[in-house]
Write a structure and sequence with these properties.
391 residues; alpha/beta; globular
Length: 391
């Protein structure tokens, strides 16, 4: 199954089908039929919402949706965290609504990063029902029409318990296709390294919706922009502007902060710990290329990689595969390599990675940053956020 998932992904991002191996080319007719069927069902679903046959629910607080048009690696969850921190800086207690897919790795990471902030996290496929439960428990405060001033984190610490309990806004993690909830701001995340693939709908391609869905977005953010060549960024901008010329386009990157060890998560380890070391990047995420390239920038002596499909749950047989690669690296370089994983991989199953002992396993912690480009910077992004709240 793992090999099949990787084969489907390779087909989705192949620019020339002729370059695929025979086995992968043989899958194309089946994937093409499934893609056509998916497109029909998608069109019917949107039509039901447009004609009012499927109802939309409006929450009593402003809703900010963070979503994408393709599968994994678009930076949705880091952006949700970034927005939650911004709202907390404005004195708003946000509720993050996430479906908790594949063991809830995103929710666990958000909980750890936002532990000391007045942020609540609701996990469930029915976002409206989940939100209702939180409103009943904590109450809500509609912040529309208020003026917001950014405060320091220390200022927030003296907020009264009552004000931090009331939910003032909701953030939809992976919300673009969740049509049953109305939203005040639609943020579209785009993976700059692999923006559209072969431009086909799932499962033949990576698109959850046709590119024309860009029209529904209020803001576009090109993620991993620091790893993308200038011409490719311009090509992405051209595609977006051809569909919606007025859409503001921002740019973001993942900034590595520190490591922690899987056997001792309370200790932060400086990024310099892997300089001149041999490392093996092991990941089961949507954009492994960005993870590996980010590690290369930190400065290890050698970087190797072992990729699994997005949201893959590591098993004992995977531990054997990883160990075999580690022994090969140790024989080649004469030093014990270090395993590097992402936080999502760690949160999916923290215990399985401990079976790699005595090899050291470090978890890379990173945060999203807005990159300044074409007059679009962090200040303007935050201004658009405030606008959506103050209407």
């Amino acid at each position: 199954m793992e090999k099949l998932k990787l084969a489907v992904k390779e087909i989705a991002y192949a620019q020339n089908q002729a370059n695929l191996f025979n086995l992968k080319r043989s899958l194309t007719p089946f994937l093409s039929f499934a893609s056509s069927l998916y497109g029909v069902l998608l069109s019917i679903r949107h039509s039901l919402y447009r004609r009012g046959f499927s109802s939309k629910h409006r929450l009593p607080v402003p809703v900010i949706s963070v979503g994408n048009l393709t599968w994994g690696g678009n930076g949705k969850t880091p952006m949700v965290e970034f927005i939650a921190k911004c709202l907390a800086d404005y004195g708003i207690s946000p509720l993050i609504l996430t479906r908790g897919y594949a063991g809830g790795d995103e929710a666990k990471m958000l909980q750890r990063h936002l532990l000391e902030r007045p942020v609540k996290i609701g996990v469930g496929a029915n976002r409206a029902a989940t939100a209702s439960l939180f409103f009943e428990k904590y109450g809500h405060l509609d912040c529309r029409g208020r003026k917001f001033v950014e405060r320091s984190y220390l200022d927030q610490k003296v907020e009264s318990h009552i004000s931090s309990e009331n939910i003032g806004a909701a953030i939809l993690d992976d919300g673009m296709q969740h049509l049953s909830l109305c939203r005040d701001l639609e943020i579209l995340m785009i993976n700059g390294l692999m923006p559209w693939g072969n431009c086909k709908l799932l499962p033949l391609g990576p698109l959850r919706e046709p590119l024309t869905a860009i029209k529904r977005a209020d803001v576009a953010v090109v993620h991993h922009a620091d790893l993308v060549l200038e011409q490719k960024l311009k090509d992405i901008e051209s595609v977006i502007q051809e569909i919606k010329v007025s859409l503001p386009i921002f740019y973001s990157r993942m900034s590595p902060s520190y490591f922690f060890e899987v056997r001792n998560i309370s200790t932060k380890i400086d990024l310099g710990a892997v300089q001149n070391a041999v490392v093996l990047c092991v990941s089961a995420i949507g954009s492994a290329d960005a993870f590996v390239q980010g590690m290369e920038k930190i400065g290890p002596k050698h970087v190797d990689r072992l990729d699994f499909s997005d949201h893959h749950l590591f098993q004992i047989k995977d531990v054997y595969i990883i160990r075999e690669r580690l022994r090969t690296l140790e024989d080649k370089f004469g030093t014990k390599p270090i395993v590097i994983v992402t936080e999502k991989d760690y949160d999916r199953d923290p215990e399985i990675l401990k079976h790699l002992y005595p090899f050291q396993v470090l978890v890379l912690c990173s945060e999203l940053q807005i990159i300044s480009r074409n007059s679009c910077d962090e200040n303007r992004f935050k201004f658009l956020l405030k606008q959506s709240l103050e209407v």
